[in-house]
Amino acid sequence: MSAITIEKIEKSFCATPVLREVSLSIADGEFLTLLGPSGCGKSTLLRILAGLEVQTGGSVSIGDRVVDGVRPKRRDVAMVFQSYALYPHMTVAQNMALPLRMRRLSSWQRLPLLGRFMPGTNAVVEEIDKVVMRTAKALGIGHLLARKPGQLSGGQRQRVAVGRAMVREPAVFLMDEPLSNLDAKLRVQMRAEIKELHHRLGVTFVYVTHDQSEAMTMSDRVAVMLDGELLQVAQPQEIYDDPDDRRVAEFIGSPK
Ligand code: ADP
Ligand code: MG
C-alpha cells in the first residue's frame, strides 16, 4: 500500500510555476528524500503534503484518503522544520506536550486553564507528562525538560523539535532540512539518529535536503528535483550509477 500518493501536483505563486505536474508514490514505511538545489520547490511540495499550502492543481492522498482541503491537524502527519519553530517562552516539556494538549482539549473541552482543574482531567495531564518524559528520554533530552529553547544548543533544540513531532505518533514524518542549522559533526551524528528513529518507528518519512551525501546515506529512495520537476526517483546507488538525464548527472556529479 502507498502511504502517500502525489498526483500531478502543480503550484504557482502569482502565475509563476514552482511545481510542474509532480507525481510520486511513497510506500508505507519508506524513507524517501526530496533532493535538489535551493529554490527548486522542495519545501513547497512538503508544505502541500502537510496541508500548510494549497496546490494549484493535482491531488494528494495519505493512506487511502484524499486529503485535498483537509486541515494540517487532521492529516496524521507531523512536520519538523529547519528553524525548529519552538515557542521561546515555553519549557521543553511544554513545547513537547503542546500537540497532545491541543488534541485532548479540542475533543474534551476548549478552556485550557479551566480544564486543568476540572475533575478527571488531571489524569489526562499526567498521561501527557508520561508520554513527554518517555519521548524525551528516548531522544537523550530527558534532563532538559524544564529549560527553555534559548538555554539549549542547536542540536538539543533539534531533538526537541523531533520530540514534539514524535509525541503525535503520526503515520508520516515530514522533515524539511532539519539538520541544516547544525555544525558538520553534529549533522552526521543526527543523520544516524534520525535513521534509528525511522527503524524503530517503522513509519513513513519524507525528508527534504539539498545535501547529496545526506540524501544518499539516509534514504531508501531519492527523488531528484530541479526547477519544480521530479527528474528521477530511484535508490541512491542507481541515481549515482545510472542518472536518467544529464541534469541529474550534473547535479549529482556522477560520470554520465
Ligand atoms: P526549496 O525548498 O527547494 O529551496 P521552495 O519550495 O522554498 O524551494 O521555493 C520554490 C520557489 O517558490 C522559489 O523560487 C521561491 O522563491 C518560491 N516561493 C516559495 N514560497 C513562496 C511564496 N509564499 N510566495 C512566493 N513565492 C514563493
Ligand atoms: Mg526549502
Automatic annotation (TrEMBL):
- Which compartment or compartments is the protein found in? Cell inner membrane
Q: In terms of one coarse class, where is the protein primarily found?
A: membrane
Superkingdom classification of source: Bacteria
Q: GO CC: one term?
A: ATP-binding cassette (ABC) transporter complex, substrate-binding subunit-containing
Q: What is its membrane topology?
A: Peripheral membrane protein
GO terms (molecular function) for this protein are: ABC-type transporter activity; ATP binding; ATP hydrolysis activity
Q: Where is the ABC transporter domain?
A: 4-252
Q: Its GO biological process terms? A: carbohydrate transport
What keyword terms does UniProt attach to this protein? ATP-binding, Cell membrane, Membrane, Nucleotide-binding, Translocase, Transport
Q: Which family does it belong to?
A: Belongs to the ABC transporter superfamily.
Q: What is this protein called?
A: Glycerol-3-phosphate ABC transporter ATP-binding protein
Give the source species: Phyllobacterium sophorae
Entire protein: which part is shown?
1 to 256 of 391
